[in-house]
UniProtKB/TrEMBL annotation:
This is RWD domain-containing protein 4 isoform X3. Residues 139-171 are annotated as: Disordered. Residues 9-118 form the RWD domain. PANTHER family: RWD DOMAIN-CONTAINING PROTEIN 4 (PTHR21275). Gene3D superfamilies: Ubiquitin Conjugating Enzyme. The gene is RWDD4. InterPro entries: RWD_dom, RWDD4, UBQ-conjugating_enzyme/RWD. Residues 162-171 have a biased composition (Basic and acidic residues). Signal peptide: none annotated. Transmembrane segments: none annotated. Pfam families: RWD.
Amino acid sequence: MSANEDQEMELEALRSIYEGDESFRELSPVSFQYRIGENGDPKAFLIEISWTETYPQTPPIISMNAFFNNTIVFLVRCRSSAVKQSILAKLQEAVEIHLGTAMTYTLFEYAKDNKEQFMENHHPINSTIPISSIISVETPNTAPSSKKKDKKEQLSKAQKRKLADKTDHKGQLPRGWNWVDVVKMYRLVIPHCPRSWLSAMVT
């Protein structure tokens, strides 16, 4: 049986199996997408499989470059890129096992069955959380003065001394007291970045 005949049979099977499945999308007769995970799931991802002219005798092209997979914030982008590479590597291992047979359905189901394992190292940050709660900034134990002067908070002598140490002779906080520790942030992010990201950051 020729590659074209194999592909025609597999195409018919895919259309029959995934009819009415909102996670499945046929981009063309030789290219397909499947969303692994439900809508709104922060660990959901999209797999795209495209057949070559000689598929299934040769491996299909597997991609995770869809825009759906890019909905991550900067602070976890490096880690997320590593997760994508790990998923693709595991799918390629499955391709080697099933080479020569119709495998698109098998690969989609394999990803569905192993979703939690694939994404165990991916910890997305909820974009609704303010950045101040992601990066801790040390601030002095003082509250802004209120227009209402009903009651003033009484400070102990130790607290007054501590406050005096942090302010100048005018009672003003020193410049940079609320700066983010950039070095500390990069130490947290850089170990998860691939070398290609690091070179891009330097240039």
